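Design job #97: recover the sequence.
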């Protein structure tokens, strides 16, 4: 494969150097469309560095992204670069190279070296930081500075609490909504009709859509297009189209047709004629039309085959026209009904937020848009922004929503044209980077077509340029060859327009890069089911139901788990194994399969706290303490690792409780000693008393400590799940302080809130674990080996109870919002809008495949279970598997049990306040060599701290320890002046430094003479330094063992960091001990 870079500027091929010169030029507005692995964030942060070098103040730079995590990573990268550029260890030649890489001409780069080295100091001296914010954080900042009158007009409280997830409040909002319906007879009738025709579950889906897309609905309502989102087929007040069948002309025609059918010799025709005659005798228009339709059409909507009967074809064609108009009319009525109900629901939601001082994300977007569009305030806002912002940088622009784009456009459009347009000010330099091929968040209202709008705006309004990069630094040639083949074929089908072949920076190694595990087959229709699949009696209390479909999915998970074990045994680090699927269900099955093999794995997607078993166990304990009659909670608490009671213990407790069923009373009177129930009796009785006066956190802290919950989990939970289990306990403790500001004063209130709220917590960062993610969660990540599960899924079913939003990017509000019950039965006038929506969904499906494939650096592996049905659209498996090689020995691999590592738990000695006998005095080495060593230590400690003149320091240390001052100064001076050691005492070259640093070794505290962190060629490296003034300290093995223990202690405190150790001898030599 060609590895020549693919760079373009305004449609023309350019060199790499020319591309980055344009992209990083801080005075030029630029839109960059870059493929996966091209280094989009690198470009954005490089642009910030160039802007700072160009004289911009940190606070004049605004960088916007979509998540707090991405914003944090952006800040960390900028800080690290500034720190590295300022480090004395960085050679000027390296700085020149870094400048050239960021678009500075090579002839000019040497003149910028001094400015680059001093950039960190300039930023720190300014006392301000580059503003790196999420969209919503920036909107909130704008609103905090907005006039109160505007905020009051749009119903916003600038000091309101941000509501991150409406799910926590939906039930209360719906109660208010139902109360409003009871007060309004007309709306109550609308709601009753909705439930009668569609049912509660479908109505609930519509109401959820109303709350999720309320801004679109409100904008459409203000624009006057919401009410007529589905047009009526008849004039207002006119009879429905189906009533036309009762007209005299229609009646005569159908009576004639009924007679002709009745005279036929075919029974089907005579039956149709009789049904048609009976239908015409009905008086209610809807019932009459339905009966006429049933007489002449099948249940699938096709005309019945009744032969060549005079007038039949004309009648069926006319009936089809009426049916279409009637369907349009019914859709219009249903849409109008939902609009009226939606207005009530949104009004109640707004009142609910106002009463409680809440703001949601939509409020921030809507408020920012109103502020930037308001004719009387836009000038004031513009003036404030002009005074503050000189550079605007936006990452991942393909994830922008139309509302976010219109808010930005309302601000930036004032600069359109020569001389800053209407603003009269110099336009800020705009840098936008993204990749429409990676737009997979339409469910969060992201709109990839916005990227096209910003391209056009930057070129036409700001005089900028468009850059395109299809050169990746991530994917191996084998992965990229498959990617190009798949998406060039999709582009040829018209399904993936705009794709250009990618090139790569990675060298080819000739090894296969794309594999497919055997697809789990599905029995052919008519095949006799396996004996295991046949229905049989089972003990439902002890034997779970084994659905054939679940067994097939488990078989796929088993194959993937075995392939992962193969990779680990072949030397691939678990952290470099990434498994993705569209949904979480396959990943849960894989997690179980990996846990059975003792392979550590972690779901990087945020998990719901209350769904974790450890959280449920702790909640059960609290529930049992505050509600002793709740037997189920008590049973769960007893069976949890906290008490580890067996089934036999619970049965014994049940028998002792007797017919009254008072389990708590039976437990409190349990006669045994030394068993699980006796321990539970003692602890629960004490905790119940404590629960009367302790707040939730203090009670939980006592439960965890006195019950030794962490120790119990470490002993009983498999190693692969241990870290997650312990992290869950910590998360519950943290939530007892963080949930709603820790306002819950009683365990009962805390338990209720924890169960009611949808609280997600990030998974713990396990450096040695296989990562399991959804495709949406994996965006932005990469790994050496990537598995894609469920690549041939069951086709999605037709969506029901949906809200169709047609919002062309160029318009300031949606063109149409329509409540539709069945997407496959949209009215004719909405057919084009629905077809466009489905095309966008199909494109997003292919975008998901692009994201999945581009996560793999070296190897991509697909797995699948054969689906039960097919659609016209090709699945990921159908597109990629034909290019893949079979996974080696996948079918023949047997599950080999892996030994489970024994738990390691480091515990502090138990605290005791009993008086201890004073320790015997340690023998004191008062030899001249010892006194000299202590004095030199003290001089080095003082000199590396506050500094000072060497002779004065030596005199002070010599007086303290009784050593000769001249010898102290001579030895310390040799060490400080030696080229190997000098950098360890130069404060300007150190990231961190400490003397006499305490560490815990085997339960005892030891002290490292000096511990420093330095920059070794761009890598943070910790040095453990031990002063040994004798001539050859390296000759004593005990010294090496001591340094090895210190190194390990530092590694535990700084996981993943590089740690080195050395002796510093009396002659100033640095003698390294152990490997680097």
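Job complete. Output follows.
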């Amino acid at each position: 494969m060609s590895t020549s870079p693919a760079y373009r500027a305004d449609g023309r091929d350019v060199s790499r150097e020319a591309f980055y010169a344009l992209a990083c030029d801080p005075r030029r507005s630029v839109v960059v469309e870059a493929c996966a692995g091209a280094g989009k964030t690198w470009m954005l942060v490089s642009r910030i560095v160039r802007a700072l070098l160009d004289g911009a103040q940190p606070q004049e730079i605004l960088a916007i992204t979509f998540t707090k995590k991405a914003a944090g990573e952006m800040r960390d990268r900028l800080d690290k670069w500034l720190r590295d550029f300022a480090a004395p260890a960085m050679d000027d030649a390296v700085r020149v190279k870094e400048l050239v890489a960021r678009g500075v001409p090579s002839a000019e780069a040497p003149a910028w070296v001094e400015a680059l080295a001093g950039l960190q100091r300039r930023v720190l001296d300014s006392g301000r930081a580059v503003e790196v914010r999420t969209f919503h954080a920036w909107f909130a900042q704008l609103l905090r500075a907005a006039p109160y009158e505007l905020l009051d007009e749009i119903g916003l409280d600038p000091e309101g609490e941000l509501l991150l997830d409406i799910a926590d409040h939906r039930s209360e909002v719906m109660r208010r909504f139902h109360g409003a319906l009871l007060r309004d007879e007309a709306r109550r009738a609308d709601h009753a009709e909705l439930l009668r025709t569609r049912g509660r579950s479908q109505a609930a889906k519509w109401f959820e859509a109303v709350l999720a897309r309320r801004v679109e609905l409100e904008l459409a309502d203000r624009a006057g297009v919401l009410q007529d989102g589905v047009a009526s087929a008849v004039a207002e007040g006119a009879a429905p189209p189906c009533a036309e069948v009762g007209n005299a002309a229609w009646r005569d025609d159908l009576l004639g047709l009924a007679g002709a059918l009745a005279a036929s010799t075919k029974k089907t025709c005579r039956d149709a004629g009789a049904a048609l005659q009976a239908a015409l005798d009905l008086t209610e228009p809807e019932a009459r039309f339905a009966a006429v339709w049933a007489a002449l059409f099948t249940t699938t909507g096709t005309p019945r085959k009744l032969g060549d009967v005079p007038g039949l074809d004309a009648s069926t064609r006319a009936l089809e026209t009426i049916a279409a108009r009637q369907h349009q009319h019914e859709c219009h009525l249903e849409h109008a009904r939902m609009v009226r109900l939606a207005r009530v629901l949104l009004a109640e939601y707004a009142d609910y937020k106002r009463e409680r001082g809440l703001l949601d994300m939509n409020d921030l977007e809507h408020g920012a848009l109103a502020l930037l569009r308001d004719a009387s305030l836009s000038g004031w806002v513009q003036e404030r922004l002009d005074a503050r912002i000189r550079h605007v940088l936006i990452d991942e622009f393909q994830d922008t929503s139309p509302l976010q784009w219109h808010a930005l456009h309302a601000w930036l459009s004032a600069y359109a044209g020569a001389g800053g347009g209407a603003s009269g000010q110099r336009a800020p330099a705009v840098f936008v980077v993204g990749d429409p091929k990676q737009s997979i968040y339409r469910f969060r209202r992201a709109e990839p077509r916005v990227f096209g709008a910003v391209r056009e705006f930057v070129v036409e309004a700001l005089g900028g340029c468009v850059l395109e990069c299809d050169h990746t630094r991530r994917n191996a040639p084998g992965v990229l060859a498959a990617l190009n083949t798949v998406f060039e074929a999709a582009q040829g089908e018209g399904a993936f327009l705009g794709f250009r072949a990618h090139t790569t920076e990675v060298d080819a190694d000739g090894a296969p890069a794309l594999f497919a595990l055997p697809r789990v087959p599905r029995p052919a229709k008519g095949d006799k089911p396996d004996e295991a699949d046949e229905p049989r009696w089972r003990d439902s209390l002890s034997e779970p139901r084994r659905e054939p479909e679940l067994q097939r999915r488990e078989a796929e998970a088993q194959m993937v788990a075995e392939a992962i074990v193969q990779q680990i045994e072949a030397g691939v680090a678990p952290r470099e194994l990434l498994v993705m699927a569209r949904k979480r269900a396959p990943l849960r099955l894989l997690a179980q399969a990996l846990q059975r093999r003792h392979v550590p794995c972690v779901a990087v997607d945020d998990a719901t706290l209350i769904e974790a078993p450890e959280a449920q166990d702790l909640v059960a304990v609290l529930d049992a303490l505050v509600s002793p009659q709740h037997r189920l909670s008590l049973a769960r608490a007893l069976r949890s690792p906290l008490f580890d009671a067996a089934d036999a213990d619970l049965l014994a407790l049940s028998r002792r409780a007797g017919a009254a069923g008072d389990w708590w009373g039976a437990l409190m009177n349990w006669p045994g000693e030394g068993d699980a129930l006796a321990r539970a009796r003692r602890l629960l009785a004490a905790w119940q008393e404590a629960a009367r006066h302790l707040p939730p956190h203090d009670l939980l802290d006592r439960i965890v400590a006195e019950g030794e919950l962490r120790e119990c989990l470490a002993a009983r939970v498999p190693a692969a799940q241990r870290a997650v289990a312990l992290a869950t306990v910590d998360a519950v403790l943290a939530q007892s302080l963080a949930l709603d500001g820790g306002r819950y004063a009683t365990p009962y209130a805390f338990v209720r809130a924890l169960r009611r709220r949808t609280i997600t917590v990030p998974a713990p960062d396990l450096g040695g674990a296989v990562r399991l993610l959804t495709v949406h969660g994996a965006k932005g990540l990469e790994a050496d080996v990537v598995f894609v599960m469920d690549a041939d899924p069951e086709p999605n079913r037709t969506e029901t109870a949906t809200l169709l939003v047609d919002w062309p990017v160029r318009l300031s509000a949606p063109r149409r919002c329509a409540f539709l019950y069945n997407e496959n039965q949209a009215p004719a006038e909405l057919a084009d809008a629905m077809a466009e929506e489905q095309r966008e969904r199909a494109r997003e499906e292919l975008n998901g495949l692009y994201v999945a494939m581009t996560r793999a650096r070296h190897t991509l592996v697909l797995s699948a279970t054969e689906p039960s049905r097919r659609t016209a659209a090709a699945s990921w498996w159908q597109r990629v598997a034909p290019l893949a090689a079979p996974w080696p020995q996948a079918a023949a691999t047997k599950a080999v049990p892996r030994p489970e590592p024994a738990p390691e738990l480091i515990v502090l000695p138990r605290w005791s306040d009993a008086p201890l006998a004073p320790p015997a005095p340690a023998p004191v080495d008062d030899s001249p060599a010892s006194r000299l060593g202590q004095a030199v230590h003290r001089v080095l400690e003082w000199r590396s701290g506050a500094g000072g003149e060497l002779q004065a320091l030596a005199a002070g240390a010599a007086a303290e320890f009784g050593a000769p001052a001249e010898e102290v100064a001579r030895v310390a001076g040799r060490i400080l002046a030696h080229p190997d050691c000098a950098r360890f005492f130069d404060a300007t070259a150190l990231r961190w430094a400490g003397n006499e640093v305490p560490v815990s070794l085997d339960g005892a505290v030891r002290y490292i003479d000096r511990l420093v962190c330095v920059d070794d060629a761009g890598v943070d490296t910790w040095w453990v330094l031990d002063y040994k003034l004798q001539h050859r300290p390296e000759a004593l093995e005990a010294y090496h063992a001591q340094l090895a223990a210190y190194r390990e202690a530092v590694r535990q405190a700084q996981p993943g960091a590089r740690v080195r150790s050395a002796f510093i001898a009396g002659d100033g030599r640095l003698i390294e001990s152990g490997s680097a």
